[in-house]
Predict the structure.
Amino acid sequence: MMKLATNILVATDFGETAELALDYAILLAEKLDAKVHVVHAVSTPEPGVPELGVAVVSAMMQRLVHEGRVSLEHLIKRQHGRARSGEAFLRTGDARDVVLQVSHELAIDLIVMGTHGRQGLSRALLGSVAETVVRSARCPVLTVGAKAVWL
Amino acid sequence: MKRILVALDGSDRAAQVLAAAQRLASLTSATLVLYRAINIPTMLPVDLLAVTDRTIEDILQSNAHETLGRLASTLPPGMLEAVITDFAIPWDGIVRAGRTRDADLIAIGSHGFRGIDHILGTTAAKVVNHADRNVLVVRTLL
């Protein structure tokens, strides 16, 4: 029978659906004896006021990267003792690019992610990060909605 | 997980999607509902309709059932719950079937359903955006 996945990548924005996605991935990984890796993208905020310039942006980025690291460490601790945990990645850049990039680098064979993020924008209207990943990823993608369904 | 809705088109890639769903179902003791949306081809010549007493819907539906039946026959006993076909736009039909059959997960291929999929947006991407279920998009080779 075909192998479903040995390396699972969970994309997280630390939102509620991302939490569901991680839990789902862990349950799945336990059944598949797969490893769970986690990635978080810190994207450059657009201040909208060009005069504020680079200083504000880089200070903000530093804070976001720091917060991201703390949250990732927290996630890894939570996962501990359940599925085999892999690596945690924090990268700066557009979430779509970061997820695809890391999935290529690690030869990921399943991406698990929530269908909508923390921003709360209408996913049907704007298209979600998940949608772009589904279109461009080279491996299977499992999207998890707001409703939790357990394995 | 209780039930996986497997969205299949008429292509050779359908078997790849079914294989992934079958693997997941065997790991989680889920049953499978095989689903196929049927489109009425708009380019169909009217002359064709005159050569048979059967309605075009009948012919398309029995063909679709036959294809799904062939795929279903490869499944281990007890795993198949139902085979359903429906006249619908694929993404919409799949999303609705997921809801009415109360599937826990929709499994779908990344390519297929229409040749122009990659330009207009894949059926899979639309299902991901509109379904209120979890969706497994299986990477199928063209």
